[in-house]
Amino acid sequence: MKKNIFKEFTKGLAKENPILIIMLGLCSVLAVSTDVANAIGMSLGFSFVLIISELLVSIFRKIIPNEVRIPIFLVFIAVPTTIVDLVMKAYFPPLSKSMGVFIPLIVVNCIVLGRVEAFAYKKGVLETLMDSLGMAIGYSWVIILLSIIREVLGKGTFLGLRVLPKAYLPMSILTFPPGGFFLIAVFIAILNGILNRRS
Amino acid sequence: MLSNLLKIIIAATIVDNMVFIRYIALCSYVGVTNSIDASIGMTFAVIFVQTIATAITWIVFHLFMQGLEFLQIIVFIFTIASLVQLVEIYLKKNVPSLYKAMGIYLPLITTNCMILAVTLINIDKNYSFIESLVYAFGASLGYGLALLILAGVRERLRLSNIPKFFRGYPIVFASMALIAIAFLGFKGLIK
User: Fold this and answer.
1) Of residues B167 and B191, more confidently modeled
2) A108:B20 CB<8 A
3) Do A179 and B112 touch (CB under 8 A)?
């Protein structure tokens, strides 16, 4: 029993990583990972929404009628998203501005709806908590690592501070969409390679 | 007036292409481009739902939501979800052939980030009713364009010899990167 619960947690980190393996929720990952600060803000907001909504659905799963479950899930997701959106607007206005439409878009982030539908609606509260924690961390490490590569190599800065010498010519293509797509391709290839070798 | 609308539609379709420049709607994008038929079905479904959803959310926001702006996200997503459900029921009953062509894509559309994103952007940019409709139409047209391009590329990829680790999704993203470079070329076309 204990081992099982631990497994729910670890599967989100690599084996069923929401971004690199299940390939969901890519929009926010690519759009926000041009800056490390944005990526951290996004992963915090996303984790909050994911954990709260999964827990809510898991708690109420017995009284949610099957036919109208999707609209109900959406409301459960939209409420924490609104909270995140308003908090960001109030306390971190520049961050909120640079992430723009992508905070409200957490509502339709396929990972959240996918986990709620595939996992939280069927499983107990404790397992759901572990699952959502694992998925949140799995999402966060990918987006933060991606943003570090893109900001350091693409702009020569880290969290806005210059880390590479002035003589370094930034590869600004990395901060543009093509660089983002290509980095994701490389990430998936590497993770697939590692998982293949292990099995 | 007309040139303004033309500007909006070109900007939405090509210059600010939803998929390649704004990174919106990637999940469904990667999933659907498996086949050209599916891409065509999805394109029409998106154009259809996007335009209706934009019209309804614009009216709802400007008529009923003065002072309630903080409810925007919840109201919009609820409107879109119920709209999609309604369209699905209507098509199933009255236009079975159309339902057969795009029915399976309709439930997916609720979670297509593009629908919600475009409605939010319209409010954000303070577009008038006509401008919002044109923007929505242009954006979904751009999405359809992107779908068809990648679907064609993937059809070719199936026959080519790909390095072992890049098989499957990685090569798709690498090709998307190349297409995105092409789309970057349109930058600055419209000021």
Assistant:
1) B167
2) no
3) no
